[in-house]
Amino acid sequence: MKRTGVAKLPLHYGKAPRWLVLRMQKLAKEMVTVIVDEYGQDEFLRRISDPFWFQALGCVLGYDWHSSGVTTVLTGVLKNAVNPTEQGLAVCGGKGKTSLQAPVEISRLGEKFGFSTNKVDRLRYASRMSAKVDNTAIQAGYPLYHHAFFVTEHGKWAVVQQGMNVKDRTARRYHWLSENVKNFVVEPHDAVVGDVKREVALDMTARESEGCQKTSTDIAKEEPRKVMKMLKSIRPVYQKSLQEWIPEASWEEYIIDVLSLPRNLNWKAVKRAYDFQPKNYEELLGIRGIGPATVRALALVSELVYGEKPSWRDPVRYSFCVGGKDGVPFPVNRATYDETIEILENAVKQAKVGGKEKINAIKRLGNFLKQ
After folding, report:
1. What angle do CA 218, 134, 103 make, to 5 degrees?
2. Are 194 and 201 in contact (CB under 8 A)?
3. Distance between CA 128 and CA 146 in Å, rounded?
4. CB of 95 within 8 A of CB of 145?
5. Burial 50-88 (b: 16+ CB within 10 A, else e)
6. How many whole angstroms separate alpha carbon 116 and alpha carbon 214?
7. pLDDT tens across 64-115, in order?
8. In the chain, where does DSSP find H-type helix?
9. Domain range summary for the chain, segments of one domain joined by +
10. What span, in angstroms and rounded, lies between the C-alpha atoms of 59 and 321?
11. How many degrees, rounded to 5, is the angle at CA 96 between CA 150 and CA 169?
12. I need a surface site. Which of 84, 110, 119, 248 has the fewest CB within 10 A?
């Protein structure tokens, strides 16, 4: 679990110019082809799930070196550049409403790759649960607005998704890799990348939250009326936030209000959980309607009534070769960019007919560009 360091991801206005996006797509296609041919599809997923490599790829393609926009633009570029027939992998989902299309796109991809119904269902579940976990089980003020699901023809997957805090306009990115996910609700990430480390944040995926997870699940299996009584018992008339239980943090430190005790819950979802009787926290989290407020309320009841505390520690942790769209650290050199694309395209073509020396030359491309 990589949870160290910080990468600044401020939100920038505007959008990537068309001339740059087209070049990014061409260069991305050749780079992905080289990586898949040389190291395989699984290695490409491992690199995508590495936040430093992901950021570096965005820089190599010429996007902002420290902007949160690198996430949405880079995944969009890869979605258009990657060809399932040629590279044996694809990108589903995307930004905003496009992210909601991930399940449908996964089903279509399953037909193309010849996946069984069971495998398609597992992939759709992985997509849905990874989004549910980062939007609900981790609460630091970053609701998701972007979800990209990478999948290979063998059914391996990776997730790159991002949330935004509208109050301080910072972003947070989450990386998942299927081969490292042993449990969807216990430290499943390869990395959590962000600009701000919150003084207090609810992390129900932390290993130290496992006791709270079990108790929250047990509470959810109680009759809704009993859950309502427990909530009332820990909510004084004057109480409006968690400050009295977290004296280290003053209100001035909060720029988010997600840590306030919920005044109302989705009681239909609570009733649904009671009827379903989930066996574990993952099943509880997967129930339709169980959102951040319910998760937070169950965690508080677990801590204050039963003594099972959740983790309140925030789980949050790059250079150019052709320049950046905002001119930082210098403007994109279009001639160099086009030359780089041409070198890669020719190398890939030669490699397909046995010209391995061309591939070796690509490995030295970084030194070439520095010169």
Report:
1. 100
2. no
3. 13
4. yes
5. bbeebbbbbbbbbbbbbbbbbbbbbbbbbbebbebeebb
6. 33
7. 544 557 888 899 999 999 999 999 999 999 999 999 999 999 999 999 999 9
8. 18-39, 41-48, 51-60, 69-81, 84-87, 102-113, 117-132, 210-220, 224-233, 267-276, 281-285, 292-306, 334-352, 356-363, 365-370
9. 1-197+314-371, 207-306
10. 7
11. 105
12. 248
Cis peptide bond upstream of 329, omega within 30: yes
Q: Which two tokens stand for residue 326?
A: 């905002």
The structure tokens 């997957």 sit at 157
Answer whether 139's CB lies under 8 Å from 198's CB: no
User: Residue type at 264?
Assistant: N
For residue 95, the SS3 value is strand
Long-range contacts of 130-135 (CB under 8 A, 24+ apart): 130/159, 130/161, 130/174, 130/176, 130/184, 130/188, 131/99, 131/161, 132/285, 132/286, 133/184, 133/185, 133/188, 133/205, 133/285, 134/161, 134/163, 134/174, 135/163, 135/292
Q: What is the pLDDT of residues 246-272, one digit of tens each?
A: 555 444 444 445 566 777 789 999 999
Pair of tokens at residue 136? 């609900």
**Total residues belonging to the chain:** 371
Report the greatest alpha carbon distance in the chain.
76
Residue 319 has pLDDT above 50, yes or no: no
